[in-house]
Design a protein that fits this description.
By secondary structure, this protein is α/β, with parallel strands linked by helices. The protein has helices spanning about 15-30, 45-50, 75-95, 105-115, 130-140, 170, 180-185, 205-220, 235-240, 255-265, 275-280, 300-305, 320-330, 335-345, 355-365, and strands spanning about 5-10, 35-40, 55-60, 100, 120-125, 145, 160, 195, 225, 250, 265-270, 285-290, 315. The protein contains 15 helices and 13 strands. Strand 8, helix 8 (about 205-220) and strand 9 form a beta-alpha-beta unit. The chain is globular and about 65 Å long.
């Protein structure tokens, strides 16, 4: 048989790009002769991250529709048409055996072009609430890999396989790393530590709320690792000036997220699909603050999938100034409650998701 050829399309955010790369790596591990071509959106992070991971990528001129009326929206139909024509050419020239969509702007035109040529398609839906594009593509896709129960509300039941979300393995392997983590961040292993992550760009409402809590962290003797994102980094550094000795640290971006998790007794995070999957695998008690502007409010639905299992706490973005502080300091001093959250979230973690999905992709390769 010829070397299997696979197109992987989608991206836009780390939540789509890193799982796509994890699936590609798993395919190569199972069958090193697999040929992989990525299709992304021009100007988005996949155009940089995918080549860094050693794969070829083609960009489509696709863009999203802005929620409010803007002049940019007038370009949308033209960019969509140009993307569909380019995707058709890419599929025709590459002749894939399977096309995989991971969500994000580029996956729509690419999978549609593959379906029009009768190429079997697999969708990886990361959220607990499926997006519009995936719901449409799901009607013709052969296999739909999901991370949550109850997805038959969006897709044909017989096509669904519960696989979990692929995560970066180096991020979730924490065994024996706590001591190194404490050293890395310059923290006291005897004290409790809170980790704050708002996604790679930071989260404005979380940052503002944490800024107001700095004195309380110092007073209570609770340590803080605060990933601020680029835009808030300078302001956060000023807010914690002189408090580093109390174990209050800010970083624009945590490059060694495994050490961040290893140091943490409690995590405050947005509820993106990959963040939630990582928290389940690292078994960390969490307070989730869903991003209110996420499409179809999917982050709240991701968070509720954990809350309903008593596996995380939720603070609505609009209530963050009223609720976050009391919740953080109540939880961090309650060993029993932290243990219960950790035990319950661990039950929801799914290991080896990338390998399971890669095997499903290879099953679709025409014999």
């Amino acid at each position: 048989m010829h070397n299997p050829k696979v197109i992987i399309s989608g991206g836009g955010t780390g939540g789509h790009v890193f799982p796509a790369i994890a699936i590609a790596n798993a395919l190569k591990k199972i069958n090193p002769s697999v040929e992989i071509l990525f299709v992304g959106a021009e100007g988005k992070m996949e155009m940089e991250k995918v080549p860094q991971a050693g794969y070829t990528i083609v960009g489509l001129p696709i863009m999203g529709l802005h929620r409010r009326l803007t002049a940019q929206n007038l370009k949308f139909p033209f960019k969509l048409l140009a993307s569909m024509l380019k995707a058709r050419k890419v599929v025709k020239d590459f002749v894939p055996d399977v096309a995989v969509g991971v969500g994000g702007y580029a996956s729509g035109p690419t999978l549609k072009a593959a379906m029009n040529r009768n190429i079997p398609c697999l969708i990886q839906e990361q959220n607990s609430f499926a997006g519009v594009t995936n719901k449409i593509l799901g009607q013709k896709a052969k296999t739909i890999c999901v991370a949550y129960d109850g997805m038959a509300a969006f897709f044909p039941k017989e096509k669904i396989i519960l696989t979990g979300n692929p995560v970066r393995q180096e991020v979730v392997k924490l065994e024996g790393k706590r001591e190194r983590a404490m050293e890395f961040f310059g923290l006291d292993p005897e004290k409790k530590t809170v980790l704050v992550v708002g996604g790679s760009l930071g989260a404005r409402s979380i940052n503002h709320a944490i800024e107001k809590m700095i004195d309380r962290f110092e007073k209570e003797g609770v340590q803080l690792i605060w990933q601020t994102g680029k835009l808030f980094a300078e302001r956060a550094a000023k807010a914690v000036a002189g408090k580093e000795g109390a174990g209050i640290k800010t970083m624009e971006f945590i490059t060694k997220m495994d050490l961040g998790y290893a140091a943490a007794d409690l995590v405050i995070s947005r509820a993106g699909a990959i963040a939630v999957s990582e928290l389940c695998l690292v078994k960390k008690p969490a307070i989730l603050v869903p991003l209110p502007s996420a499409a179809e409010d999917h982050q709240t639905k991701n968070a509720m999938a954990l809350v309903n299992h008593k596996a995380a706490e939720l603070v609505a973005d609009g209530e963050i100034n009223n609720e976050l502080e009391s919740k953080v300091f109540r939880l961090i001093s309650n060993e029993e409650e932290l243990g219960r959250l950790s035990f319950n979230i661990a039950k929801l973690g799914m290991n080896n998701s990338a390998d399971i999905i890669a095997n499903e992709v290879l099953k679709l390769v025409k014999k």
